[in-house]
Amino acid sequence: MSSYAKFAKIYDSLMKEDTDYEKWADYIEDIFKKYNKNPKIVCDLACGTGNFTIPLAKRGYDMIGVDKSLDMLSIAREKALQANLDIIFLEQSFSRLDLYGGCDAFLCMIDGFNYVLTPKTLFDIAKRIKTCFLEKDGIFIFDISSSFKLKSYIGNKTFIYDKDAIFYSWENKFHEKTSISDMYINFFVKSKSEYKRFSERHLQRAYEIDEIKQIFNKAGFSQIDAFSPFSFENPKNDDMRVVFVAR
User: What SS3 state is found at 163?
Assistant: First the structure.
């Protein structure tokens, strides 16, 4: 399994190639407007290196970033310091979330909940947030890699990446019985005149849209909507991601 210690150092360079964080921040604000929300305090779960936390803090939201990886949070704190932003970063697993008070909105973006491997654990997380930390009339926005992406697009395939100082081979195996995608990645990262090798193993669960809705409804959310990314249209069968809004 991943400790994120070495991965954290190259995470941003990999993710920023295909993830437009400012566009996502625009979309999150569009969701706030659609649902007539004007949150003051926003908690970003599985915040990683702060790529959602920091752009939203620059837009005036009081941000709390939560992640279980100290290495990721160290980078996030440094980036926030360089941007002169006062952000609270907490080293916590969101399955054991323990905040100082309530928040007007919660986020969990870019696969965060795919790493929750059982519906029971996801239910416990959703119920704890709804019961203990989400303010009345609050909103919870999150997205997941779609079932289509994990089962069919990634499936049992191998991908190769080779650019600049990073090379990796990404091997995937999808287990139909458990809906778990087992991802094994061998990294070779150039350091001065040599390449250093390390490996990562990531497990993600494929959730169906109706399954997510049932879990969050059971956890106390009365309305759970699902959208294609960057829109308010119903998800398509071949969407790589699905965005959820729970209230």
Answer: strand
CA 120 to mean position of chain CA atoms = 19
- Alpha-carbon Rg for the chain, nearest whole angstrom, is 18
Q: Look up residue 100 and give its two tokens.
A: 């100082």
Percent of the chain with pLDDT over 70: 97
What 3-state class would DSSP assign to 63? strand
Tell me the pLDDT tens digit for each residue of 37-96: 999 999 999 999 999 999 999 999 999 999 999 999 999 999 999 999 999 999 999 889
Phi–psi pair at 148, nearest 5 degrees: -60, -45
Q: What is the CB-side half-sphere exposure of residue 54 using CA atoms within 13 A? A: 17
What six digits make up the tokens of 157? 């395939």
Phi, psi of 141 (to 5 degrees): -115, 130
Q: How far apart are CA 171 and CA 187, in angstroms?
A: 12
Q: Which amino acid is at 75?
A: I
- For residue 119, give both structure tokens: 């519906």
pTM of the model: 0.93
Task: Report the distance separating Cα 189 and Cα 175, nearest Å.
Answer: 30
Q: In the chain, what is the greatest distance between 2 CA atoms, to the nearest angstrom?
A: 57
Using an 8 Å Cβ cutoff, are 52 and 44 in contact?
Answer: yes
